[in-house]
Design brief:
The protein is α/β, with parallel strands linked by helices and about 200 residues long. It is built from 6 helices and 11 strands. It has one domain: 3-Layer(aba) Sandwich (Rossmann fold). The protein is about 30% helix and about 20% strand.
Length: about 200
């Protein structure tokens, strides 16, 4: 696997991002449909009233089919927005068919900031997190900004991790590597789902 020959976090990022972006368009489409089906059957999704998710970018597993599923099943959907005042942090805003979308500093679309659309993190049932790579311990490697590690720090520090928001990572199968060198700020995920396999770590 990739992790056998690549040691540094940046090397892993580069290699896995290249693999991810190189996936065939038809494969991407099929995997998005598989993902929506898998997630629609997940017990936590069936019970959820509000979920946070992200719009796919840089070859990430496409989430649009699942977002459509949520909209048609009265599950409120929220997207991450870079906090305008608190550096390195996220807000989550309601995402719906009439959302006005703008590009953030990374060129990623996000809802235009409107305080009436912001939801407190504690009211989100599931937070689906993007990732670049993961290993068989649940270690997650992101893009390097630390946004989701900060977002999930409070959840991770709780003794009873059944409390919301429950994090689930989403990834293509090719994003699994053997070992991710972890840093002290990294938040491991309890669950990662690919279109073809579900990993539970604790």
């Amino acid at each position: 696997m990739t992790g056998k020959s690549i040691k540094s976090r940046n090397e892993i990022r580069q290699a896995v991002r290249s693999k991810r972006k190189g996936l065939d368009e038809q494969v991407q489409k099929e995997e998005a449909q598989y993902l929506a089906k898998v997630l629609s059957l997940h017990p936590k999704v069936i019970e959820a009233k509000a979920i946070a998710i992200y719009l796919s970018n840089d070859g990430e597993l496409n989430t649009n089919s699942f977002i459509d599923y949520c909209w048609h099943n009265n599950i409120k959907t929220y997207l991450p927005v870079i906090h305008p005042f608190s550096k390195g942090n996220l807000l989550f805003l309601n995402y719906h068919t009439k959302s006005i979308m703008v590009k953030n500093q990374y060129g990623i679309l996000e809802p235009e900031l409107n305080v009436s659309d912001v939801i407190p993190l504690t009211q989100i049932d599931i937070i689906f997190t993007p990732l670049v790579a993961f290993d068989n311990t649940g270690a997650r490697l992101g893009m390097g900004g630390g946004y989701y590690d900060r977002t999930l720090a409070t959840w991770f520090s709780q003794k009873n991790k059944a409390k919301t928001p429950y994090p689930i990572g989403l990834a293509h199968t090719c994003q699994q590597v053997e070992i991710i060198p972890i840093e002290h700020w990294d938040i491991p995920l309890p669950e990662i789902i690919t279109p073809h396999k579900q990993f539970k770590f604790y």
